[in-house]
Design a protein that fits this description.
Length: about 325
């Protein structure tokens, strides 16, 4: 197989596009496609201040790297979840990447900020770790963005993530989630714009880019992800993709192009009014936001079980560590 651009021996095949590339042209194609995604959805505008949510995995490190190659200055945000060695290695990888590339990084430790790690939060609430984890991550991304003056939060979600989420939402006809899902969630007062510039690349394509660009990332998955429904949806979509290359892309893109606009046109629900949470001041729909409710409940239960001192109270203000380029 030959590179579709220069005719040299190809190293990567993108079957769904009927194209193959040598190393140099694959990297070029990847960066160009990312720029197209950003432009097509007007994800980033000249005055924007960007925060890149970086876990230490391939998607977010590739995202951070490609954004800087495109000339966008994004400060990284790493959330330390306290999931044993997995989280320690995630932080090490992220720090090493930031230092090697001269990028600014903000680190927030969930336990230092809120008093419990994600596994301890799960034990206290009796809910799966992933649900509290997802809620705290979303809260922190938005909260840090608002407090530190960033109006855009970029995440590394790829095509596999987005197609799997769509399949999950369709299987349960989650209309609210279906209407919101997409590569960009508009900015509203108190809510940063959320963008996913890598949403058209498969996981394999992102991994290939990371490998060819020499980006070392954390390969291990979160131990709590095992058995997660999202993995089952990904597996099913991969089986379809093997038999019918392009399935994931068509499934997601055609949904966004043809179905979502119709859904939105026929929606009878008025846009919900937003207000400020009485506990933490973040934007929410009720009197108290879901994050404060979850942590208040966790505190009450953790105190009963003597995991926290009786006078402990949940303080929703995150504690930030700024690791700047000059002090790696
Ligand atoms: P996941 O929910 O693990 O599939 O991650 C989706 C995206 O969320 C990643 O590509 C990152 O941009 C972001 N993200 C996940 N975990 C973290 C973390 N611990 N710290 C910062 N960002 C994260
Ligand atoms: Fe959040 Fe696994 S529970 S990353
Ligand atoms: Zn080539
Ligand atoms: Zn709150």
């Amino acid at each position: 197989m030959k590179c579709s651009v220069c005719g040299a021996p190809a190293q990567v095949e993108v079957r769904r596009r009927n194209r193959a590339f040598c190393v140099e042209h694959y990297r070029e194609w990847f960066v160009r496609e990312t720029r197209r995604n950003v432009k097509r959805h007007r994800m980033i505008r000249p005055q924007d201040r960007l925060l890149a949510a970086v876990s230490g995995g391939k998607d977010s490190l590739v995202l951070w790297s490609v954004l800087s190659q495109l000339g966008y200055e994004a400060v990284g945000l790493h959330i330390q979840l306290g999931i044993g060695d997995y989280s320690r290695r995630a932080l090490e990888t992220t720090r090493a990447f930031a230092a090697a590339h001269g990028l600014d990084l903000i680190v927030v430790d969930v336990r230092e900020s809120f008093g419990l790690t994600i596994p301890e939060l799960a034990r206290a609430t009796g809910r799966a770790a992933c649900s509290g984890c997802g809620l705290s991550k979303r809260y922190l991304m938005n909260r840090v963005a608002e407090d530190e003056g960033f109006n855009v939060v970029a995440t590394g979600h790829n095509l596999d993530d987005e197609a799997a989420t769509l399949l999950g939402n369709v299987s349960h006809w989650q209309l609210d989630a279906l209407m919101r899902q997409g590569p960009m969630l508009a900015e509203r007062p108190g809510l940063a714009r959320r963008i996913k510039p890598l949403y058209t690349f498969t996981e394999r394509e992102v991994a290939a880019y990371a490998f060819l660009a020499g980006i070392s990332y954390q390969h291990e998955e979160c131990p709590h992800a095992e058995g997660a429904k999202s993995l089952l949806y990904k597996e099913l979509l991969n089986r379809l993709e093997t038999r019918m290359p392009g399935t994931k892309q068509v499934f997601l893109e055609q949904y966004l192009k043809k179905v979502q606009p119709a859904l939105r046109d026929h929606s009878v629900e008025a846009e919900v009014e937003l207000r400020r949470c009485e506990r933490c001041g973040s934007v929410t729909t009720g009197a108290v936001c879901a994050h404060c409710k979850l942590w208040d409940r966790a505190y009450a239960r953790a105190k009963k079980r003597h995991l926290l001192p009786p006078d402990a109270g949940f303080d929703p203000r995150p504690k930030l560590h700024f690791l700047t380029r000059s002090e790696p």
